[in-house]
Amino acid sequence: MQCVPRILRLKDLANEPENMNERSQENVGICGLSTLPEVEHFEKEASLPDKSRRPQSRSPSDMRDSSRDNMNAESSWEDIHKKLNVLKKLNVLRPTEMEQTRKIHQNDNPSGDRSTRHHHLMTTRELQLYWKEEKSKGKPVKLLFQIQSTRIAEDFLSKFVMYQIVIIKTGSFDGKKVFIERRYSDFERLHRNLLKDFKEEMEDVVFPKKLLMGNLSEEMIRKRMMALQDYLGEIYPIRCVRKSQKFIKFFIEPELEEGYCCIRGGQYGAAMRTFQQVIYLQEKLVEHCPTLMVPSLCALLICHRDMNESQMAYEVGMKAVELLEKHTTHRYYMPLLDTLISLAFKTGKEYTALREKVQINEMKVRRTFDYEIPTLKELVVQEYVKH
């Protein structure tokens, strides 16, 4: 279709709606919309100095003229909406574009004072560019892995290097920087396990070779720090790798084992510190599946409850139950609700809604499972039990 150089204005559309069907194919399809003359007047006026726009003294006639101008601005604003409706009926402006235009005008004048602010009507192309820019303002959130320090440890047989890994969430302020320690053999095990499932995806990933001698020298430790940091930076962008259980367990499994062992031994203070760190890590690693945080949150709840910190236990439990609202058959859901009802009663909080959830799901769970529903603590102490 050949584009006609004439720009179709909203004013023309409002005045001649009956002729639009004949001329829409000729004028509208490509050319779009232009800026209203009234708007250009407002913009020019807004660019003038304050003294030229608002005189110090005003005569009664000036006041009458100002009042009349305000009324004209009010009607002009209403005309914009009428003209938009005309465009919508004629399929010139899609409903989504019309809504976006309305929001833009609201943002230009949030106080609702239409007479004191200038307004403009964007073309369809300008709207597209505007919303594209708005969407691109948010920086993508990703993880940054840094190995900042090391220490030499030893067991009964040999000495080895522990690498301190700091996990930082980029794209926003991360006030929960956490670090873990892993040795070279842990990295090697991770790489070997990942290759079993993602050999093709990781064919270009370079893993630092193992050294039989000289691996405790300062120069070699420094080189390996950089190599292992680069390795994590290479595998994290691979989507299937970063969402795999093997990748996630590399960062949290030793700490989980330690935390559950402390709970079984009654060391709730140590367990609480460990699970708090694990939860910080999981918030960064399992955004694709937040329900993976539920067992850790429930373990932290048990620590607070058994240390007579009922208020903290209740708050942690409510975070966990929110993650399970769409997963009511989850094995932790019913025991968690029972525990929260008890905590709500103890702390004087409303528990009617929690009890209703239990009644709704109780029969469904009993039809699904033939065994007695365990308590929350029974579930927690059974986690990571080595047989």
From TrEMBL:
Keywords: Endosome, Lipid-binding, Membrane, Protein transport, Transport. The keyword Aminoacyl-tRNA synthetase does not apply. This is PX domain-containing protein. Its main location: membrane. PROSITE patterns: PX. It is a peripheral membrane protein. Residues 43-75, 97-119 are annotated as: Disordered. Pfam families: PX. Residues 141-258 form the PX domain. It is found in: Early endosome membrane. Residues 43-53, 97-106 have a biased composition (Basic and acidic residues). The keyword Phosphoprotein does not apply. InterPro entries: PX_dom, PX_dom_sf, SNX20/SNX21.
